[in-house]
Each structure stands twice: as structure tokens, then as C-alpha cells.
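Aim 2, interim progress: modelling of the LLP-bound target.
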Amino acid sequence: MQLTEKILALKTPCYLYNLPLLRKTLQNVKEESGRYPAFHAHYAIKANANPVLLKVIREYGLGADCVSGNEVKRAVECGFPRDSIVYAGVGKSDEEILTALKEDIFCFNCESLPEIRVINGLAAQCSKKARIALRINPNVDAHTHHYITTGIEENKFGIYLCDLDQVLAELTALEHIELTGLHFHIGSQITDMGVFRSLCLKVNEIQQHLNHKGLRLPHINFGGGLGIDYNNPHAEPIADFASYFNTFARHFEPACPNQQVHFELGRSVVAHCGDLISRVLYVKEGKNKKFVILDAGMNDLLRPALYQAFHKIENISSRLPEEKYDVVGPICESSDCFGKEVSLRQTNRGDIIVIHSAGAYGETMASQYNLRNLPGSYFEGE
Ligand code: LLP
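Predicted structure of the complex, ligand included:
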């Protein structure tokens, strides 16, 4: 990335979003999913809920995947059609369910029988019928970080396969519920297409079981999870959507000819489109190492502290030879570290440091810990 007057003028720390890259990424999603008429891509708002990005994403015809009442409201405000909004989450509150019922969204992705009973009751109060999909925990290991693996049996997510028949039996008695599909999401940052193939094979098995019971549902939702290359943000700025959608087209067997297939992509749509821009406050000489202390901290970008996540870090102010530094933030926690032994061009106070691929789960996970300000956001190519 080039140091420009515009970047020098930014109030740091802040997120800088590359809208032309976002548009290119979305065009690719549209083309690759568009090869398969039954496929529908939704965008997982939790990855980045910035309204400027949401309005661009909406332009490319993606639906919205929400995990809170406020995300549902944000999706509607940013122009996502109500009938393209899905809403998941293990702990939907009554107020959130009522919001989604009022907005008449496409589908609730439900995670337990107690939740479905509550939705039934609230839908009855509103004289509505809630469309739901059952989120099934298929016990397929995503082989990713244990904090972002969601589809194995020890997770809190979804209905276990062994409970499926009992749930289906109970549903028939719930008059304000319409079962329209099944939902899956087995984890995030998955780059091995073999994992999605295993998911397809498991879903095929489940559908065969349902077929035997005479049940053919109109919708299947595979969730999100497509990973990106954090090591090479410049060489690989767009995720491999072609292989992703093709894997499902090849291995998933629809239960009926016009069964519709949904996806909820988050990270792969926005991650490379955002960088965290910060300034060096101090360079501190330790006993055996040097620390670069940034004005950005774990409150601005939590991923390295929470998941030991790797983000490529670059000093765009310096042309000096490289040295090794631990790059840290100003927060009173040892985990407030963006990278150890990072090779950076020789660094001085005031230099601009870019932390790449921070467009997903960066701004949305920012907090005011230590009573710091929330990072601002700026846009290139508006
Ligand atoms: N659908 C559901 C039901 C989800 O729970 C998620 C993400 C997605 C879709 C989108 O997944 P994606 O395409 O972004 O992988 N904060 C973590 C990631 C947590 C993912 C939570 N669920 C991180 O920074 O790596």
C-alpha cells in the first residue's frame, strides 16, 4: 500500500475501506453463484455492519444474514429486501423475535425446541405464521480455530441430529410455525473445500432420512465459512468463490428439483476490503527485542488477542531496511499484541502502520475498553 496525502491526513486509529475491491469481490460472488440458478448468497452482517459497505453489498443483490434484532433493523434500513433476510442465533430475545416478526423476514434459523415454542407463541400474538429453518448441528469438523468451530456436537449451536425426529414431531402441533428448510453453519475461515464436501454429504444423508419420512423442504441453507488468505492480501485479494460454489453444485443432492440453496458469506466478502490504519506512538527498546507501540489496540481489532489471528502488518512510511519488532497496542493487557517478531521496515515515531485484511470482524468487534474512542471509518473510491 502506498503512503498518500489522504492516508497521512486520517485520524488514527481508523478503518480504511477499499470500495473498488469490495465491488470487484461482489461482482465475483454474483457471477460465481449466478452459474447455479437455485443458489442465493446472503451477506453475514456480523462480519461488518458499516452502513456504507452494506449499501454497496445490497446493490449486488445479496440477501442479509442477521444474528440480532438490531442487525435485522440495520439490514432493513440499508435497503435489503425483507424477504431476503434470515435471522439466526442461539439466544433470540422476545423483543428481537417480535422485531423480526414485525419486519416479516424471510426466515428464522432456529436452534432449539424451546426457542421454536417461544416464536410460535409470539407469532400467535401477532396473528402471524413464522417461517423457520431448523439449524442442525451436523457433527462435521471444520478444522479451524476452536473458537470459530460451530458444527461439532460439543458446541452450543443447532439441534443435534439425534433430536431431529422429536423436534419434527413436535412442530406439527405448532400452528404459527411453518417449517421451510434446514440450516447449517459449521465454522469460519475454512479454506479446505473437502470440509464443505463433507458437509454436503452429511446434508444429503439427512435429506434422504427426511425423504423417507415424506418430507421435502423447499430451502437448504449452508451458512458461511469460506476462508481467505491472510498471509497474501495483495496476491489473493478475492476469495475462491468459484471453487466454493462449485463444491456445493457438485456434491449437494437437492431433495426436489427446485430446492433453493442459500449461503451466508461474511469474512470472504469484506475481509480484504478493510485495513486498520494506525500511527506509531513510540519505539521501545526491550532487553532482547524492540517494541513498536501503536495508537491502535485490541479494542480496535480484537482478532489477534482473541484467536491468535495473523494479520499482515506493514510500515508504509519507511524505506529503511527491515528489522524485527513486537507490534503492540496501548491497552493494559499483555494480550494487546498484533504480532511478535514481525519484520517491518525500520520504524520511528509517527510512522503509519497498516494492519491488513481487517475488514471482517474488525470494526464490528471493536469496543471502548479502557474508555477509548471507537475507531472511525474512511472509504477509498467512494
Ligand atoms: N452464518 C452463521 C450462522 C454464522 O454464525 C457465521 C459466523 C456466518 C454465517 C458467517 O461466517 P463467515 O463467512 O464470516 O465465516 N469473529 C470470528 C468469526 C466468527 C464467525 C461467527 N459466525 C473471527 O474474527 O474470525
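The first helix runs from residue 5 to 8. The mean pLDDT is 96.
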